[in-house]
Each structure stands twice: as C-alpha cells, then as structure tokens.
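call fold(seq) -> tokens
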Amino acid sequence: MNITNIVQDYESSAEEWLDWKWQQRNAIRSIDGLLAAFPRLRRDFSAAILRNNRTRRVQITPYCLSLIRRSSDGLAPVDDDPIWRQVAPCWETEGEIAYGYNGQTENWELPSEMITPIAQHKYDNRVIIRVANVCHAYCQFCFEALRTLERHSSKESLQQEYWEKTLDYLRENNEVEEVILSGGEPLIHEDEKIDRLLFDLRNLGRELIIRVHTRALTFNPFRVTDVLVKLLRRWRVSAVGIHVTHPNEITPDFRAAVERLREGIPIMFANIPLLRNVNDTVETMRCLCMTLYSIGVIPHYLYHFMPFSP
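ret:
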C-alpha cells in the first residue's frame, strides 16, 4: 500500500497530510487502531500488543504507518519490517534476561544527578532538560521507558516552577557550557512554547551552546516547518541530534526536513541505537551512516548496551 492509498484511507487531503498537527491528531493509539490498519495482523502479534498496551503506550502517526512494508494484499505488516519492529509493542517477554528492562531499576537519571525534577547534570559542562514526557510516536525499545512508554509514569513533566528552578541553577553554575533540550520529544510543543524556552535560555546572562534532540524526522517530519527553523536560527541553536535507526526512515520527507534544518542549524548529527534484527548488520549500518553523511547529518552516536531498556 502506498502513501496515496493511506491518505485516502484517512480521508485526508494532501494539505492535511502535510500538517504535523493533523498527523498527531490521527495517530493510532490502540489495538483497535492497529487492527483497522492491519486487519490480518497475526493473532500472536495482536494478543501480545493487547497485553502490553495495558501498561505501555502505543502511538504511530499515519506518516510512520506509511513506512511499514505490507503483505502482498496490504492487510498485514511484513513481520521483519524494521519500522514495524520499532513501534509495535508485540514483544513476548521482558525483564527476564541480564540487563533487561524490569520497570524498576533506574540507571540513567540517578538522584544525585537530578538538579530539578526535569533537569539532569550528569557531565561536568552540560545539562540535559526533559521538556516533554511524550513523543510523536513511541519506540518500544526506548531507554526513557519509565518516562515515555509507561502509561502511569511517576516522572515529573515540564512545569513553570521546575523550569524556573532549572534556569536559576544555570545562572548560578558557570561551569555549564551546554544545554540539551530533550524528552520525550521537545518538538511536540507548539512553536510559541519552544520560542519561549529558547528565549529564556538566551537571556541567562552568558552564551550557552544549545542542542535539541528529536525523533520527529522519522515519525512526523512535517513538524520541521519554516517557522520552526526560523525560531531555531533566531535563538542560535547550535546543533540538532536526529534519532534514526534504519535507511528506510530516510525518505524524501526526511530529506526535505534535513534541508530545512540546514538553513538554520550549524551542526546536525545522528543518534543511532543498535537494535537486533533492525540494523545489526554491517550492510544496513553502512547504508544508514553513509546516506546520513551524504545529506549533511554526521553519524555520531551509536548506542550499544543501554541497560534496563525493553
């Protein structure tokens, strides 16, 4: 099934399809939605998804759905499709192997590192700020599982009180040279909100390196609008880290988003998790890295052995 057919299935116009907010409003968030998209989904898949969806979130934008390869009749996903394997919560078990995710062990945001409920100071000269607990869609391997995947996460969300305390910390600690806006997905916010966050960071009394991490180019590349790029350029965002895992994600829309970002962002790099049966071959990884490099995105981070992830 091609994108044109999916647009028709959603009864949308081409203009609506290119609207990032429309993509979010029409995202699949339930087993019923998945069964409507894939009426011949394997029974064991649907059973696993139903079970896991009780405690974990599922969300797939129409755009992301269009990237999933389908069976010849168009009614089921190809079992080993790399996009399907990332977004469908169809695992059988978890937490039963060494370093598997168990929903309890936290190895990333250690209490001593959390300067506020939304900000982490792990490395000497940089602070990461979680400005959102939600995403455009959900990677089922996410190492931020306790924040993004769990339906009833105990992690705090962005609040003005926490933001003000984070700004105060940055003012008082001159050793911090870089701030990373992450999540969840920082670009899930409206332009006005992002504009305000960047304004505050640029008015701390000293020049900071500002970095933004996003998965939007795979899940909702239409989020990278001209307005967004202008405000990133206005507030001198230094770098954008693009989360990507497989060459199939680098579509014409992905490339167009990169081209827009290049108009205002000096540095773009890729964060790549190493995933079994998704990109764990030399051929796939080489294709991914060289394709990214050819369009101006440096293959920078390769995440390997991230404990306590699904």
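The chain has 14 helices and eight strands.
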